[in-house]
Automatic annotation (TrEMBL):
<dbReference type="InterPro" id="IPR036565">
    <property type="entry name" value="Mur-like_cat_sf"/>
</dbReference>
<comment type="similarity">
    <text>Belongs to the alanine racemase family.</text>
</comment>
<comment type="function">
    <text>Catalyzes the interconversion of L-alanine and D-alanine. May also act on other amino acids.</text>
</comment>
<feature type="binding site">
    <location>
        <position position="752"/>
    </location>
    <ligand>
        <name>substrate</name>
    </ligand>
</feature>
<keyword id="KW-0436">Ligase</keyword>
<keyword id="KW-0663">Pyridoxal phosphate</keyword>
<feature type="binding site">
    <location>
        <position position="575"/>
    </location>
    <ligand>
        <name>substrate</name>
    </ligand>
</feature>
<dbReference type="InterPro" id="IPR009006">
    <property type="entry name" value="Ala_racemase/Decarboxylase_C"/>
</dbReference>
<dbReference type="GO" id="GO:0016874">
    <property type="term" value="F:ligase activity"/>
</dbReference>
<comment type="pathway">
    <text>Amino-acid biosynthesis; D-alanine biosynthesis; D-alanine from L-alanine: step 1/1.</text>
</comment>
<feature type="active site" description="Proton acceptor; specific for D-alanine">
    <location>
        <position position="477"/>
    </location>
</feature>
<dbReference type="Pfam" id="PF08245">
    <property type="entry name" value="Mur_ligase_M"/>
</dbReference>
<protein>
    <recommendedName>
        <fullName>Alanine racemase</fullName>
        <ecNumber>5.1.1.1</ecNumber>
    </recommendedName>
</protein>
<dbReference type="InterPro" id="IPR035911">
    <property type="entry name" value="MurE/MurF_N"/>
</dbReference>
<feature type="domain" description="Alanine racemase C-terminal">
    <location>
        <begin position="682"/>
        <end position="806"/>
    </location>
</feature>
<dbReference type="InterPro" id="IPR000821">
    <property type="entry name" value="Ala_racemase"/>
</dbReference>
<dbReference type="InterPro" id="IPR011079">
    <property type="entry name" value="Ala_racemase_C"/>
</dbReference>
Length: 808
């Protein structure tokens, strides 16, 4: 849109005047790394706890961005148009709220503790035949995500569906102003503690602010909502237990629906409680919108599971696959292309893309925009599948097209994919999962799923405990505590952490080969690896005189100049590190050389997780402060000082110094229950049931006949064993797995590659998913049963278990 700068300045509430008449804004952005930033992008420089987009404005200018919304003084060439405001996030929201006012069709706003995304996606599936819908991509529901969703509205749309999520008081009014919903939906209100509220009432009162100007609120009929709902909107309700506009009764897999004195039956596609409630919400919305019951009866059973994930998988011929084979709207293509750039391992980027539905644009306009997006993102090769994309995207370079997925699979030589990062993105009807399954490296069914969003969440949690200036080093040693190396390192690079820490040089080499450019410290450098470390620009921890002399020798051979090294002091752990008696010789060696420079001085705490040892921890910290100060003065240097690990950050934040070293917390495990409650689970170890055997009374199961059936039993065999990292002592009834959210105790002895579980009392079938640990059975709980610590459980999951990385 073309917009007069005076108008824009007014909307953004600028504090400085802007000298230009009119600018043309075609896109907005808050991501300095996105490749689609260009001359017509209005860039909002957001400030986070540890991230400040103002630091990247010059890079953005170099990439062609000219319009900036900032909140601090910046120095940019004269043709940059700068809007200075008090708060850039509020300016973003104000801008989108202003944009939103141009449209007057019904807009559904959804909030609640759980089910927002599912209800949004299901309503989209159900209402598709009747409307041109604009909806939030993925689960974009935050203070930033909502404006980025709403800005995509255009003239062609006639229904909006947006979700809003909040985590603390006083956030909803801003989302309300952006979405301006006319129809409100409240999904449910979970326990208060899982978001930052002190009571359920407080949480509900905050959430329902989304509906204050809506025409109608659709929700379950409950006392709590009745007592708290705003006056304005009409209330349209559903219930399973009492009188409501829509009354449901459930009989196993059939839902009977009573509305305006009529009763009809719907077959349920999903039968777990949460899904049934979400279906009830959707049916109520359809009835409110006067959708005919015959359509409801035939459409509900066809609802499909909602899959929002972008998964990173290892492909054939060293390819890296990004699997987004469940959605194809234009908004989520933008997100997927940003993610492709963030995760890419190779220069060669290939995109396999189906026809795009529901953009609100005519095909000509849509594919012109898609073509631009692909070009801006430097995609090397595009394979279009579908009739529309084939005829409209011809003009971009390296484009091949196929009418459908079958033809592509038959005619294309899949083996030709090699050393490239491949994004596979298509609408569900194209069944791109077939392409993914052909290109995926084959391994057995057991996988460790890693939630990249949870890692980001956990990183931000610890950041929030630190001063904005405190650097963060993340420990990715031991294959990222068993979770994965370069995939996690790429994410950390994206978050711009200061350092990565590995245990051995070869771990650092692997990261460098995958294109990681962050500074990397090797904690256990072996003399034999010094030359390799120098070749790959890895920085050694130096912990004694013998090692220092050896490194200086190599440094001289390589003619190094001020190569960064990190001095470790032993302040009580008594593992590695210099003590005071070494100082005279240490100072002597370092004073007289220019071969290396001390980039940091650090020490490691032995008891930061033990409240009863607080005195000892403080003693270590004090000793470190004294000794590091002495070394700094003697050597006349200004190194980074650091001592805190995860539990140190949590308990001893006052001693964060210049940097902290975050380890286990990033992977979702704290050292006490309160800390755990604020972290998100990262890893889920999953497998499937291979076979179920019926076993008679007195029959036995497994090696040594250790399980003896005392009743007729059903025994399920699953393909995971001690060679995958499951403790053998977990067998014989000591441990259990989860199948369909129910506990199944381990029956008999754990084998090398398999184990058996008793499923007599639960609902389980061959092929069902089995969870060994994850969100519902946290690693901490497992570690207790294994009589060890979570660190050991995490790092003992064998490398033959495939890791799959995903992002919601
Ligand atoms: C592993 C390690 C850390 C991280 O410890 P966590 O308890 O996992 O946070 C920090 N510093 C050093 C020197 C380490 O070896």
């Amino acid at each position: 849109m073309k917009i007069e700068t005076t108008v824009l300045a007014n909307v953004l509430q600028v504090v400085d005047t802007v000298a230009t008449d009119e600018i043309s804004v075609l896109d907005i952005s808050v991501d300095s790394r996105s490749l689609r930033n260009n001359a017509h992008t209005l860039f909002f420089a957001l400030k986070g706890n540890n991230h400040n987009a103002h630091d990247y404005l010059n890079d953005l200018y170099q990439n062609g961005v000219r319009y900036f919304v900032v909140s601090q003084d910046v120095l940019l060439p004269a043709d940059a148009v700068i809007f200075k405001v008090k708060n850039t996030l509020r300016a973003l929201q104000n801008f989108v709220a202003f944009y939103r006012k141009n449209y007057h069709f019904p807009v559904i706003g959804i909030t609640g503790s759980n089910g927002k995304t599912i209800v949004k996606e299901w309503l989209n599936q159900l209402l598709l035949p009747f409307y041109n819908i604009i909806k939030s991509p993925k689960s974009y529901n935050s203070q930033v995500g909502v404006p980025l969703s709403v800005i995509a509205i255009n003239d062609q749309h006639n229904l909006g569906i947006f979700e809003a999520g909040i985590s603390q008081p006083n956030e909803m009014e801003f989302l309300e102003a952006v979405i301006q919903p006319t129809i409100g939906i409240l999904t449910n209100i979970g326990p208060a503690h899982n978001e930052g509220f002190s009571s359920k009432e407080e949480k509900l009162q905050e959430k329902i602010k989304l509906f204050k100007n809506a025409d109608v609120l659709i929700s379950e009929q409950t006392h709590l909502i009745a007592a708290n709902k705003p006056q304005n909107p009409k209330w349209f309700t559903w219930s399973f237990i009492k009188e409501a506009d829509v009354f449901f009764e459930r009989n196993d897999t059939v839902l009977s629906v009573q509305f305006e004195k009529e009763i009809f039956q719907v077959n349920l596609p999903f039968t777990d409680l949460a899904s049934v409630e979400n279906i009830a919400t959707c049916i109520t919305v359809l009835l409110f919108l006067k959708v005919d019951k015959t359509y409801i009866i035939q459409a509900i059973p066809k609802l499909q599971t909602v899959q929002m994930r972008l998964q990173v998988k290892k492909g054939i011929n060293d390819c890296l696959l990004i699997d987004d084979s469940y959605s194809s709207d234009y908004q989520s293509l933008k997100i997927a292309l940003d993610f492709l750039e963030q995760q890419k391992m190779y220069q060669q980027k290939t995109v396999v893309l189906s026809d795009i539905f529901q953009s609100g644009f005519t095909p000509e306009v849509l594919y012109q925009k898609v073509g631009q997006l692909l070009t801006q993102n430097h995609v090397t090769r595009v394979i279009g599948i579908g009739n529309q994309i084939g005829s409209h995207l011809k003009n971009i370079s390296q484009f091949q097209s196929y009418p459908n997925t079958e033809t592509f699979l038959n005619d294309f030589n899949l083996k030709a994919f090699r050393n490239e990062t491949v994004l596979i993105k298509g609408a569900r009807s194209f069944q791109f999962e077939k392409i993914v399954s052909e290109l995926e490296e084959k391994t057995h069914e057991t996988v460790l799923e890693i939630n990249l969003d949870a890692i980001s969440h956990n990183l931000n949690f610890y950041k929030s405990k630190l001063q904005p200036t405190t650097k963060i080093m993340v420990m990715v040693k031991a294959f990222g505590y068993g979770n994965g190396s370069y995939e996690i390192a790429k994410l950390l690079a994206h978050h711009q952490v200061a350092y990565l820490g590995v245990a051995f040089a070869d771990e650092g080499v692997e990261l460098r080969k995958a294109g990681i450019k962050l500074p990397i410290i090797v904690m256990n450098p072996e003399n034999s690896a010094f030359a390799t470390m120098i070749a790959y620009n890895l920085e050694p921890e130096i912990y004694n005189l013998h090692e220092l002399k050896a490194f200086l020798q190599i440094a001289e051979n390589f003619n190094l100049f001020q190569y960064p090294v990190h001095l470790k002091l032993n302040t009580g752990m008594n593992r590695l590190g210099f003590t005071q008696k070494d100082f005279p010789a240490l100072i002597e060696l370092l004073k007289n050389t220019n071969l290396v420079q001390v980039a940091s001085i650090f020490s490691h705490l032995a008891t930061s997780d033990m409240p009863e040892e607080k005195q000892f921890t403080l003693q270590q910290i004090e000793r470190f402060q004294k000794e590091s100060t002495y070394l700094k003065e003697e050597l006349q240097i200004h190194p980074i000082l650091h001592i805190l690990n995860t539990s140190g950050i949590y308990h001893f934040g006052a001693y964060q110094m210049d940097m902290v070293r975050l380890g286990i917390g990033l992977y979702g495990v704290g050292n006490e229950a309160k800390e755990d409650a604020q972290l998100q689970n990262v890893a889920t170890l999953k497998t499937v049931i291979l076979q179920i055997n019926e076993v008679d009374v007195n029959e036995t199961v497994g090696y040594g006949r250790r399980f003896i059936a005392n009743r007729k039993s059903r025994i399920a065999t699953i393909p995971i064993g001690y060679a995958d990292g499951i403790r053998r002592s977990y067998g014989n009834g000591n441990g259990f797995v989860l199948i369909n959210h129910q506990k199944a105790p381990i029956a008999g002895t754990i084998c090398m590659d398999m184990l058996m579980v008793d499923v007599t009392d639960i609902n389980a079938n061959e092929g069902d998913e089995v969870v060994v640990f994850g969100n519902d059975l946290r690693i901490t709980e497992l570690a207790k049963i294994w009589n060890t610590i979570p660190y050991e459980v995490m790092t003992s999951i064998s490398h033959r278990v495939k890791r799959i990385f995903y992002k919601e």
